[in-house]
Write a structure and sequence with these properties.
- The chain is mostly helical.
- It folds into two domains: 491 residues, Sodium/glucose cotransporter (Up-down Bundle); 79 residues, no CATH class.
- The chain is built from 23 helices and four strands.
- The strands form two sheets. It has a two-stranded antiparallel ribbon. The chain has a two-stranded antiparallel ribbon with strand order 2-4.
- Helix 4 packs across helix 15, helix 4 crosses helix 18 and helix 7 packs across helix 19.
- The radius of gyration is 24 Å and the shape is globular.
């Protein structure tokens, strides 16, 4: 069978599995819908957390970013993995001991204010919608290439699937679905990595092959002599005018630090990850599930650098100086999606890859007025200031990697299923946060406190359905690359939730006025900075114009500092929290109540 047929089979089987699990484990109570009745085993919860955590950004986009950024791309690895350790050690056990459903609920009760709860609800919704935009875009990218439908149609199909099991199953259905999705995505990520590692280095462990020497087969496939794989990649990069792959330096040290730190503390403030620790039966189980999740996450994250280097080297060797008429089939297939394109600047009929941009912008259909599926396309001017003739979108590197390496069709289709599993699992978790924020934190606790459990469950499902529609709109009109959009969400989480949660657990003096103003100032500053450079004045989005050289992806760190400063200063200037609140804060950190 061909790639299309295999994709329909594997995607159809996995989607049927997800829907079947959702029907089997559908939520019957609000406890099922919000926290799976707190009955999830730590190993299962760790696996579900891994799937919830490893979004389309981790599966699709992270290795692509590393492929193009080289060593600088490690900030995504360090930020996301370090952030999870921070969350597991510093926050999860205390929030689990608190024992409620949502982060806004913690904020509302810890800061003894319905207004603080409402502010937290708005922040949770804003962060979650930003994050989910990247997931839905990832779904569209996968569908576009492998099922040969427009990206927007792919987004709509993804909306329908996630609507079914998120709205029907709630947290209970999502958890068991995410366990299956983790199995699918990790298998899909590892199999091509193992195949390609064996082909190039003879080593079946990608993490070792990444730092190993080329095998005889690898030398033959790449048309090069003996040596270490990374040395060959460095040389290829420098021959084309790029800096060495392992040298980094494309970003300033302060920007790398700020992005890494924003990703770390943003992780610890993400409501859809925090809520997972409320689903275990005990506090001990929450700690154990955090450890299991870290193990499951590490399997993919330690493989990503190998995938990035394999894909980068294979792509350059496959395309550079190759006649367009003789271009490999994978290039022609991906060209239809608009995520890779070629413009013959020098008229020699060969594809030249070099430092610089092929087009002035990101639209790949530069020469066509109509895309491959009949959609209208805005032409993009050619950038004649450099020799590069190829446009390659970051987000295709992992998905195209098996095709570039000429792996079997079923492996290519499996990667498509893995990308969909990664995107849909995280999207479901985010949509549940949005639904919980509306139904439990806003309606149940603010607007209609006397609503019945059945009414609250209906409200939660309606809210989840509405969130799916809005998420789909964001997926159709995304603000950037998948990983870039997710980085914005982490910055927003870092600047809004992390300070008030940390101070709420570890500082009894934090007041409601300080928390509210801190969240508002932190998220408004971060959002305004991102919106200005990405939407209002994108031409100014360069290091010379950034505050202290900090990019929009890293500005969440400054937003976090603003939040901390405002919360502490205002708390010192206002009345201290009631004594019962201070005792509750103390009880979160100690086995027995302190008088």
């Amino acid at each position: 069978m061909g790639i299309l047929a295999w994709t329909w089979v594997i995607v159809g089987v996995t989607f049927s599995l997800y829907i079947g699990i959702a029907i089997w484990s559908r939520a019957k109570t609000t406890g099922d819908f919000y926290v799976a009745a707190k009955q999830i085993h730590p190993v299962m919860n760790g696996m579900a957390t891994g799937a919830d955590w490893m979004s389309a950004a981790s599966f699709i986009s992270m290795a692509g970013l590393i492929s193009f950024m080289g060593r600088d791309g490690s900030m995504y690895l360090m930020g996301w993995t370090g952030g999870y350790v921070l969350l597991a050690m510093l926050l999860a056990p205390y929030l689990r001991k608190y024992g409620k459903y949502t982060v806004p609920m913690f904020v509302g009760e810890r800061y003894y204010s319905q207004s603080a709860r409402v502010v937290a609800v708005l922040c949770a919704i804003f962060v979650s919608f930003t994050y989910v935009a990247g997931q839905m875009r990832g779904v569209g990218v996968v569908f576009s290439r492998f099922l040969e439908v427009p990206i927007n149609t792919g987004v709509i199909i993804g909306m329908a699937i996630v609507f079914f099991y998120a709205v029907l199953g709630g947290m209970k259905g999502i958890t068991y679905t995410q366990v299956a999705q983790y199995c699918v995505l990790i298998t899909a990520y590892l199999i091509p990595a193992i195949f390609i590692s064996i082909m190039l280095t003879g080593n079946p462990i990608p993490q070792f092959g990444y730092g190993g020497s080329l095998s005889e087969n690898g030398m033959r496939l790449l048309g090069t002599d003996a040596g270490y794989l990374l040395d060959k990649l460095n040389q290829v990069q420098m021959d084309l005018g790029f800096s060495a792959y392992t040298s980094g330096g494309a970003k300033s040290t302060i920007d790398v630090f700020m992005i890494t730190f924003a990703l770390m503390v943003g992780t610890a403030g993400l409501p859809h990850i925090i809520i997972r620790f409320f689903t275990t039966p005990t506090i001990k189980g929450a700690r154990a599930s955090a450890g299991w999740a870290l193990l499951f996450i590490a399997i993919l994250y330690t493989t990503a650098p190998a995938v990035a280097s394999f894909a980068r080297l294979n792509m350059i060797k496959t395309l550079h100086n190759t006649s367009y008429a003789e271009a490999p089939s994978w290039f022609k297939n991906w060209e239809k999606t608009g995520l890779i394109a070629w413009k013959d600047k020098n008229g020699d009929g060969a594809m030249q890859y070099a430092k610089g941009t092929a087009f002035k912008g990101k639209v790949a259909f530069a020469a066509n007025e109509v895309g491959p599926y009949g959609e209208k396309v805005v032409s993009t001017p050619i950038d004649e200031s450099n020799a590069n003739e190829l446009y390659v979108d970051n987000d295709i590197m992992v998905l195209a990697n098996p095709e570039i390496a000429k792996l079997p069709a079923w492996v290519i289709a499996l990667v498509a299923a893995g990308g969909l599993a990664a995107a849909l699992s995280t999207a479901a978790g985010l949509l549940l946060v949005i639904a919980s924020a509306f139904s439990h934190d806003l309606i149940k606790n603010v607007v209609a406190p006397n609503i019945s459990e059945k009414g609250e469950l209906i409200a939660a499902r309606v809210a989840a359905g509405g969130a799916v529609i809005v998420a789909g709109i964001f997926g159709i009109y995304p603000p950037g690359f998948v990983a870039q959009v997710v980085a914005f969400a982490f910055g927003l989480a870092a600047s809004s939730f992390f300070p008030v949660i940390i101070l709420g657990v570890f500082w009894k003096r934090a007041s409601k006025e300080g928390a509210m103003l801190g969240m508002i100032c932190g998220i408004l500053f971060t959002a305004a900075y991102i919106i200005y450079f990405k939407f209002v004045n994108p031409s100014a989005n360069k290091a010379d114009n950034w505050l202290w050289g900090i990019s929009p992806e890293g500005i969440g760190t400054i937003g976090m500092v603003i939040n901390f400063v405002v919360t502490i200063v205002v708390s010192k200037m206002t009345k201290e929290p009631p004594m019962e609140v201070q005792k509750m804060v103390a009880s979160l950190r100690y086995p027995r109540q302190i008088s």
